[in-house]
Amino acid sequence: MTGDGRLAWSLALRSLLIQSSWNHRTMLGAGFGLCIIPALRRASASGDMSSERRFSEDSPAGRGDPGAEGWEGEPEAGDGMRREDPERVVAGPEPRAPTAAHGAGRVEEPSLNERLRWHVEHFNAHPYLAGVALGAVARMELDGAPSAEIRRFKTAIRGPLGSMGDRLVWAAWLPATLLGAGALGLAGAPWWLVVAAFLVTYNGLNLGLRRWGVAVGLREGVGVARQLQRARLVERAERIASVGVLLLGGMIGLMVSWSLDSGALDVVAPWLPVGFLLFVAGVQKGQVFWQWAVGGFLLLVLGLAVIGNGI
Fold this sequence. Notes:
The protein has helices at residues 3-14, 29-46, 112-117, 130-143, 147-186, 191-220, 224-231, 233-262, 265-268, 272-285, 287-310. By secondary structure, the protein is mainly alpha-helical. Among the domains are: 3-158, no CATH class; 263-311. Helix 4 (130-143) runs antiparallel to helix 5, helix 4 (130-143) runs parallel beside helix 6 and helix 5 (147-186) runs antiparallel to helix 6 (191-220). It starts with a helix and ends with a helix. The relative contact order is 0.10.
């Protein structure tokens, strides 16, 4: 296995803990810092974290002059965070003063802990797709990208990763796998098989997205947005949602058949107009209401069918 391959697996496995330190101040920031440590260690060992790549030794910015063009001591205005809000931003370390060992005009090399502080700032994305940003930032660190560029990249990519992840996982894959497991249960499968089928299918995408995201980010670096477009995650989400609708229809058919065989249809039939009204209201109000309406109606029908069968 190549060095990048080992690093990709290390980052992907650590990404399973990216929500372990979630908080309202930095959200996934602390977890992101935990995950990026292997890349920082590798960059430090290869010498890519040297101060020369962060500051030009002959420029005013390299001497820590805040008024100089290109000075990177503070967040830029376009990074989406307010400078005046100390509770929102975790400040990075200040550039160290020149030392004799480094020569005049050269900034002392930041330590691994100091570099890590720059990565625990506020960051949020879908946890299953955060590996895309994680891998890309790791590549930027290994390639010696300036810290300001890394910060701008993280700020720019977190919104799309959150949106695509929500549509793919929460709005499509999770309902589809739940409906599939429910249909399997209504078909007569034992409970343990239903649970196992759901866990395997759902977490298959979970683990696959994490590994794929880290690999593509580590390979493409700052240009990872092109690969996200080629992956067509939004289109895939729509297809998965269509499969979910098909499974929903199958479940309703199985429940109606079960009601006919058990004599519970007389109990369920009066509630069918209610279900239709909930469906129409859900279509008018939006996707989230529609999901809750259909889910609640299915539970209602299932409960009445069980009661009718018992009666």
